[in-house]
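Researcher: Let's run the pair from yesterday's discussion. Sequence first, then C-alpha cells, for each.
Model: Starting with the first of the pair.
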Amino acid sequence: MTRTPTGSYRVSTASGEAVRAFVPLPLPPHPPLEMDGPRQRLLERATLAIGRLDSVSTLLPDPHLFLYSYVRREAVLSSQIEGTQSSLSDLLLFEIEEMPGVPQDDVVEVSNYLRALEHGISRLREGFPLSNRLLREMHGALMQRGRGSDKQPGEFRRSQNWIGGTRPGNAHFVPPPPEELEACMGALEAFLHEESSPLPILLKAALAHVQFETLHPFLDGNGRLGRLLIALLLHHGGLLSQPLLYLSLHLKEHRSTYYELLDRVRATGDWEAWVDFFLEGVEQTAQGAVTTARRLVDLFEKDTRRIQKPGRSAANHLRVLGALQRRPILTLPNLCRELPMTFPTANKAMKHLVAEGIAREMTGQRRNRVFVYDAYLAILNEGGQP
C-alpha cells in the first residue's frame, strides 16, 4: 500500500551545514498494515518455520553445541555488513587466549557484537524489560573496545548524524535531530511494550527494526544493534526459546533491496513491501538454520561412528571429538583445561582424529599448534566469507 511519507522534516545542523532531518511518526502505521491473503499466508509460513527452528533442540544431543557456533556466525555476518573482513575462524582464534597476533580491529568488533548479544539475552532472562535502557547497555558492550569506542558508548547521540554521502549536505538520509530523539525513542519503547496490540510478534519485529534504523539513535553501531533487536524481540516474545534466528545473511545477500525498502517506507509509507521481504527472509533463514542443525547432527553421528571402537583409547577419542563439537578451533592446552586431560593423552587422541581426517592442524608449526574441525566449520561458514 502506498501512503503518505511516514514522518516529517525538521531543519537541523550537522558539521555547520543546514540539513532536512526526518522525524518518523510513532508506530504502528496508519492506516494499519494490509494483511491480504498472500501476506497472511507468508506470515503463517514464517511462523511455522520459526516453530520448526525452535524445536531444533530435539534434534541435537546438546543444543548449546549449535548455539555456541551459530551466534558467532551471526556476529561475523552482521559485522561484515558494516564492512569488517573478519571470518568465523578469525573470531574463534581470537577467543583462544594462547593465540597472539590474530588481526585485531575487525575481530574486536565481531567479539563486541557477541558480547552485546549475550548481555541482552542474559538481561531478558533475568526478567529485565526490553527497553531503551537495555538497548543502551547493549550499545555500551557493542562499542566498548576498538573502532567506535569514542562514539559515546551506551548513550543516545547528542549531535546530528547522517547516512551516506561525503558530508551532511549530500547525505542519503538524515535521521531526527538530537532534540527530537528522546521523544521518538520513548514512542518506540512504548510500542515494544504494548501488549494489547493485535500485531503478531513477527510483524512487531519487522516494524520496530525499520523504526530503529530510521531513528539511528547512536553515533555508531546502529545497524548491528538494529539487527540484534529483531533477535531479542522474537526471543522475548516467546517465539524462540533460544536466540537462533538471525537475518544478517539474508540482509547481506540482498543488501541493495534492503536499503531500498527502508527508503520506500520513509518516503511512501510502503510498509507492506518491507514486511513481505522481512517475512520471506525469516522463513528462508529459519529453514536454513534447521537444515544446518540436521547436517551437523549427521556429521557428528558419522564421525562418532568412525572412532567408536572398543578400548580405553576410544573413550579419549570421543571426549576430544566432543570438545571439537563444542569449540571447532582449539589448542591442546585449551583441550587439557576443558576436559580435563593430561597433555600426552590429549596429544595422542588428537593425533588419531587427525589421522582419521576429522581434525586438521592449521598452523604447520611444531609448537603452539591449533586444531580445527574442518567439516563442522565448513557448514557454518557457508555464506559467511567476507
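Model: Moving on to the second of the pair.
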Amino acid sequence: MKSIDVNFLRKKFESVWGIDTSYYGTTGKVPSYGQCAVTTMIIQDMFGGDIYKIKIGKDSHYFNKINGKVVDITADQFGDIQIDYSGAVIADRTKFAPETIDRYYILRFRLENK
C-alpha cells in the first residue's frame, strides 16, 4: 500500500474542491464543506480500504478506513466537534446517489488534471 500523507492530500483536494462538487451546492466556512462522500471515493481509488458512514447530528458523514486507520480529511467541516467514529458502518459506494457519482467524476477529473 502507498504511504498516506494526509496533509499533502488535504492540500491537493483543497485545490480542486468547488461548489459543483459539494453536496450542498455551496461552500461553507471551510473548503471541505459537503465534500466528504466524493472525497472518500477518490481516496478509496488511490489507497483501497473501506468507506464508512456515520451520523453527526442530522448529517451523514463519510470517511475512509485504511488498514484499520481512520483517514478523514473533511472532518473540519463540523468545526471543533470531536467525531466519534465508533458507531460507523461500511458504506457501499455503488449505492450512492447518481448526483454524488456525478460530483465524484467532476472531482476526479480535476484532481487528475491538476
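Researcher: Give me one sentence on the second I can quote.
Model: The chain has one domain: 6-112.
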